[in-house]
User: What shape does this take?
Amino acid sequence: METALDTLVPGPLSLAGHRLGTPQQAGALTMVPISGPAHPGFAPPRTGLKLSRVVGYGQVELSNAAGSGVAIVPLHIGYIQDAAQNHALCRSAFLAPGQRLLFEDACCVQAGQGGYLTERDQWFFVLPAELRDAALRLRGVHGYSKLWADIADLNVRYGLARRGHLEQILSRKRPVLTQFQSRLELQPGQVGALFFVAGRFAGLEIAPDPVYFAEMWTALVCFAYGVAAWHAEPDPPADGAAPYDARSLPELRGALERDRSARLAEVAGWLAEAPAGPVDLQEEDRYVDLRLSTVTAPHLAGQIVTDGDRTVYASLFAR
Assistant: This one.
C-alpha cells in the first residue's frame, strides 16, 4: 500500500515519503492514517487562523494571528458563530503573519446579520464532501446565496426540510457527527489521512505537520466526511452477535489478527478500484516559494500547496 498514494494522484503531485498506516473503521467511515515528512513554519488553523469579521453577505475577513509562520487557509473551511451569519469559503489562500484577508467570494450557509466576532463565538468545520465539488467550481464567483440550492438538495436527501441552511445538519446533528471523533483515533505524528465512505474513496487530506492536521481532525472526521458516513451508516446486526467467536485470549488475538489482515486487504482493494488518471493543475496563488494550485480530474478535485517538488498541503475529494 506504500505506492497507493502516487497511484491515486499521479504526475506532478508527488507524495513521496508519505506512507499509509493501519486502517480504522467507524460504521461506514474508514480512515487510513498517513505519516510522512513534516514541513515546519506554518501557522495551525485553529490557534493561528481567526475569522475576524463578517462584513456582509458573502464577505468574510480572516486573519493570521500567529506570531510567525504563513497560514494555509484550509480548503472549504467554514465557521459557525453567534451574532453573525455562517459562511464557508470556496477556496484556500495564503496569509502572512499578522495579515488580514477579505474573501469576497465566500458562500453564506445560513441567513443572518453581519457583525464582529469574539473567539468564544466561533467553531469551524469543513464543508461536507457532497458540497465540495460545487463549492470549488464557485470560487471567484460573487453571490452569497450561490450554494443554497445545493445545500437544500442535500438536506432533502437526508430527510430534512428543503432549506439552504447547513446548520440543519452541522448543528442539529452535531452530537451524532462528533461520535466519529472518538471512534477514530488520531495517531502520533499523523500528517494526513485517506477517507472512504461505504468502501468508496471519498478524500485525501495532507497537512504540513502533525500539529496542523490535529487541529483539522474534528472538522474533517466529523463534518467533511462524517456527514456522508452518518447517512450511509449500516444497521446494527439484528441478532446482536459478538464480533468474534473466541473462547480464550489466544483465540481472540488470532481472530483480531485475521480481522486486521482482512481489513488491510479490503482497503487495498478499494484503492485499486478507485478511479485514477491524469490531473490538471491551475496555479491560483504564490507565497515566496509556495504554490497554491487547483486540481481537477474526472475522478477527483481540490487544491494543493507545493514547495518545489514537495507536497506541503493537499485537500482532494472524490467527484
